[in-house]
Design brief:
4-stranded mixed β-sheet; CBS-domain; 38% helix; 154 residues; 7 strands; 5 helices; alpha/beta
């Protein structure tokens, strides 16, 4: 079936499913600037940074709930004013299960993927759903292989 399993002991890891080259914006940028960048890239979140350090994240949901619903001017509100922080992050070598657990415990749909204090990607709940589907496929293959009938010898 062409399924590739990486990681130690066949464990599905975050790096197998994360998106690389995550979108970032300066802490002093406006909500409109962030929304335009997000729309151009077709993504639902942008990381807020200062001097190369990631401070937080702004999602489409943050913009709707914290700016639009409160009738704030997106040209005047800075991303740093509405960003979610502290940033919830995970290592790229962490298991998919650990990522799901972190999302569940922190009630978030996206995790920053950080390696050696550097933002290297983002993993979303959709990415992890794909990972779970792949894991189900692998289990089905293993079960099928373990239970297939051997030809009878006459």
């Amino acid at each position: 079936m062409g399924l590739e399993v990486e990681g130690e002991n066949g464990i599905l890891t975050v790096k197998m499913f994360m998106s690389t080259n995550p979108l970032t914006i300066s802490e002093n940028a406006t909500i409109r600037e962030a929304a335009v960048k997000m729309a151009e890239r077709g993504v639902g979140a942008i990381f807020v940074e200062s001097d190369g350090k990631v401070l937080g994240i702004v999602t489409e949901r943050d913009i709707v709930r914290r700016v639009v619903a409160n009738k704030l001017d997106p040209d005047k509100v800075k991303v740093s004013e509405i960003m979610s922080k502290p940033l919830i992050a995970i290592d790229p070598d962490a298991s998919v299960e650990d990522a799901l657990r972190a999302m569940f415990e922190n009630k978030v749909r996206r995790l920053a993927v950080i390696k050696d204090k550097t933002l290297v990607g983002i993993v979303t709940i959709s990415d992890l759903a794909k990972a779970l589907l792949k894991k189900i496929e692998l289990i089905e293959i293993y079960v099928s292989a373990a239970t297939r009938r051997l030809p009878m010898y006459e």
